[in-house]
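INTERNAL AUDIT FORM
Audit reference: QA-55
Scope: verify that the stored structure record matches its stored sequence.
Auditor: D.O.
Record contents follow.
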Amino acid sequence: MFLQNSQRKIEEEFLKLTEKFGADREPLKTICEKLDGCGRELGLAMKYLYVTAPYSDLVNYSFEELQDFASHGLFLYNTLERVKELPEEMFLNYILDHRVNEEEVLPCRSFFWNELKDRIEGKNAKDAAIEVNYWCAEEATYHSGDDRTLPALTVYRRGYGRCGEESVFLVNALRSVGIPARQVYVPRWSHCDDNHAWVELWCDGKWYFTGACEPLMILNKGWFTNASSRAMMVHSRLFDLFPAEGEDVIGKEGAAVMLNQTARYAKVKTVSVKVTDKEGAAVKGAQVQFLVLNMGEYFPIAKAETDEDGVPVDSDFGYTVTLDASYCKISADSTAVERTITNSKTKEPDTEPVTQPTTSTTNRTTTTTTTTTTTTPKTGDDTNIAFYLTLMMMAALVGTGYGVRRRISRRCRRRTPSCCR
C-alpha cells in the first residue's frame, strides 16, 4: 500500500498544521477543500508536500502547482518497479519532494519525463542517470551569477545557469525519471575564495556523485573530486520533519535540515567540542561556530549551542554537533577539542588556553567526552598583534607598489609605436 509506514506521521503533522493556522482560514481552508476531492494516495502525497514545505510555499504557490509534483511522483511509484522498491523515506525526500533548494517552484517533472523517457528506456538506474546528465548538458551550460537560485524549468528555457542552478536542474530531471537525487554543496572552499554545488544520486543501494551538466561516462568523478577532499564541509539539504536514519545532522537552516556528507569525499576524524568556564565547569547556552577563512572573512559553516554539559547540540533534533575547530586546543590523540571562555566582568587569570592551528581535519558527529585544557603563562599578546599588523601593512604596500609599476609599464608599452619596440 502506498506510504503505508509513513501515513500516520504525515496525517499527524498535517493536523498540527491545520491547528496552527486554522482549517477555516486561508490558505488552509482552500487546501483542505481541494484535498477532499483527491483520492487517498494523491491526498497523502499532497499532505506530505505541505507539512515539509516552508510556510511561504502555502501562500506563494497554488494547490495545482504542487499537485503537478505529487501526481508525477505517484505516477512514477505506480509505473516503475524500482521506484516502488525504494524505502519510503527515500521516495518521499528525493523523488516526491518539490524542493531542492530555495528556488522558485515551477512545475517541471512531467515535462522532463516526456523529454527523457525514450532516452532512458531499457537502461538501468546508473546508466539512466548518466544519460539524463548528458541531456542536461545539451540543454544548459555554465554561466556565473549572484541572484536567487532559478528553478529548473527556467534554466532549461534560457539554456544556462551557475553551478547551483545547474544542480537544481539535474536533480529535478533525475527525480522526474524516478532516480532519487539531491544537491550537495560546499559553502566555502578551503583552498580558494569560492564555493560549489553538485549532485548526488541513489543507485544500487548507495549514493553516487556527479557534476551537474558536466557528464562523464562514469559516476563518482568530477573536476571537484580533489578539491572536495580538502573541504571543511560538504552538506546537503533535507526538507523533511525527521532526518533519514544514519545521516549526520549538523543543524537546521530555516525549513531545511542540514546533513553532513563530508565523509563521502574526504578522510574524516571524529572531533568533539566542549565549552567550559575558567573553573572548568561546563557552560550551557554558549554559541559555537565553526569557521573557514574565505573571501576575506571567517565564514560560518556550522552553528550550534551548548547543552548543560557544555557540548554543542542542535536544539531541533538533540544531536551532538562536532566539527573541525581549527584554533582550539586539540588533545594528543586528535579526538577531542576544548575551548575555555572567560567572563569579561571578572578579572582574567594569569593563564590562557593554548591555541594552535590544525590541519584541515574534517568532521563527523560524536558524543565523545573531552579532556581538560592545559594552560601556559601569557606572553606579549599585544606585541604579537602589532607585529603581525605591521607585516600585513608592509605586504599590502609592497604589493600595491608592484601593481602600480606593472600598470605603468603596460601603459608605456601600449603608447610605444611597434616600430620602436
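Auditor finding: record pair retrieved intact. The chain is about 35% helix and 20% strand.
Action required: none
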